[in-house]
User: What shape does this take?
Amino acid sequence: MKSIFLILFMVVNASLSFSQQVFNKIYNDSLNQFSRANATLQTSDSNFIIIGNTASLDKMSAVKINKYGDTIWTFVADLGINSVDYIRDVIELNDGNYIVCGVSGDPILMNSNADIIKFDKNTGDTIWVRKIGLPNRSERFYSIKETSDHGFIASGLRYNADGSDNDIYLVKTDSMGMPEWERTYGGSNYDFANAIEIADDGGFMLFGTTYSYGEGAYNMYLVKTDIEGNQLWQKTYGGVLEDYGTSMCKLQDGNYVLAGSSYFSVDSTAAHLLKIDPDGNVIWESKYNGIKKRQEFTGVKQLYSGEIVACGNMKGHDINFNFYGVLYKFNQIDGNLVWNKKYDYFDSDSTQHYFYGMDVCLDGGFVMAGMYRDLRTGANPGNSMWVVKTDCLGNDSIWDNACDFTIGLEEIEKDALFNLYPNPSTGAVTLDYFVPQNSTSNQLTFYDATGKKAQTFNLSGEGQVQLSLDCANFANGVYNGVVISDGKVLFMRKLVLIK
Assistant: This one.
């Protein structure tokens, strides 16, 4: 009997230890309707939503996939005649549905609208569409966040129909996407914001690129506003050549990390990462040179253990057209590199791979999304959405999976090693949790959608423990619950609060 129990324990333990799902897939069809992914998000149902556009930028497109990479539903939309449409960012609401932002417009008339769209989580059907902008102006949204009043704040670009007067564009809406106010920022030249974060004081941090300010042709550009969108200050980062700001993440310590690229010679770029304080002062700065030609960061996130991860792309060398996707992990204290990985879907001198967005997954791994381009003669398809799901060490092959301390979602639900219920909840939450043997410190911390710490609960006991948690002081929204045992992240689970 003891032998049978031991065998069963070993089998179950093995399935728990090596349960992280990994895949490397492309998504397309004969019409090239899923040709580029601009962002990805793991949702509270443990699936993924991938958003982007078609090859010619004339249609918005989105794909929802499960944790194995299999398609659940697809979405393709053309929001206007002769329209250039794409989706740039996505967030999940506390009802489980999705908000995306982007642009739709007429390239002939040089008139486009910034768009906010709400999707149904189960079908991909459109719930509502808001087209925001003025006549004879063109507006684009590149980033969106949900605000504390359950409205939205979206940033991007506004310019005149003749292409002049390019400024950062910021819009605050209500919960139905109806505009409440708008602001513009910048100088006399080309300025835009790729990323937005909500500051601790309720104001907004806008990060992107400026041609109006700084010592170079282009510089990274950061604008700080108050809660009404009034500009408080602005700062630039970079040198005398060209520097581009692509992504930003608010950190657990209240600081921020900025990501992008910087030229270090006339034909070579480096991936560029900076940690700044809430006043925009640089804490540390790191650059990672490409191999003669190009390397850039396009997405950045912080792990709940504190480290920073950034995705992007790099050119292999200067004698072919091959580009690879990359993922880097850094120490957030000093910016020192912990490890880096390189990815491709098909390795050839005539294939190109780009990551444009990423997310940290509930099982401790990472998901990156972008584009795979095949330049080989007669190849079909040419451009495809490209998605890579890795384990906690950045491995995208099951044979390399070595994250034996992380327990996968399927096993969590089956064996109740870490479960929060009811979910969604109105505030009273029950936690079922397995306390690791010989552990000395166990804590459950909830983080809101902006990454801000909501509350920490100390966990005690031995073996399987049930604990009642009072989350009544939480605002409505989606929270990540993270269990850390002796400094190691063991479990992550999303909790939805609806009151």
Observations:
- Residues 1-18, 404-416 have pLDDT under 50 and may be disordered.
- Residues 369 and 467 are 38 Å apart (CA to CA).
